SCAP N-terminal domain-containing protein (Meganyctiphanes norvegica), 217 residues
Amino acid sequence: MYDSVMAEGSEDGNGGGSAGSIPDFVAQCYYRYGLLVATHSKKVILLAIVSFYIICTPLWYLPLPGYLPQNFITPLHNYTVPAAAPEGGIRLDPSPTPTPLWYQGPPKAYIQQIVVRAGVVGWKEGLVLSDVYRGPLSTVFHLAQTISDYQLAQNHSCSFGSECLLIEEVVKKYASEAGVVLPHYNCLMLSPADLWERNINTFLHDPHVLSTVDSLM
């Protein structure tokens, strides 16, 4: 009887010691941390401030809600390609001209925008409002075909299809609304002719030209 009581008491004592070791260890860690902060309070505060500014450095160049897109126009003459950015980052050294931070290195792509100004001169009897738009819009079909068939005179292997940005299928959230109009598995070329699948016969036989244009608005 005495032996069994002593065995149970020893087991309870060992169990209590192992259970209390983790809280004691955590308490010791907090005590040492508090002692370190209290002893070197100025250094710890300075280290915290410096670490905060270093971590928040990328946020300085993050546009806030309501900011307008930044435009930067390069000169047409005497243009030079800006120096390339260092690998894995951007160059932050001062520049002789006020250029944006993202304007570094040669351009990755070019966006060519062609604006056609057309109109109907002389109003004849029998014309309706849709004819005013049908006449100028008919010129975009020839222009789209000319751009698609473009080739360099010196090198016929360099064509529009070999240099354009090839895209795959339309994003799913736009597939139902504008999936038929937006290009997919082809060059990224947007044209009003896409509303009629670049088929001029479909365009000429469309009785509601304005409704077709407004379908994407």
About this structure: The CA atoms of residues 92 and 205 lie 58 Å apart.
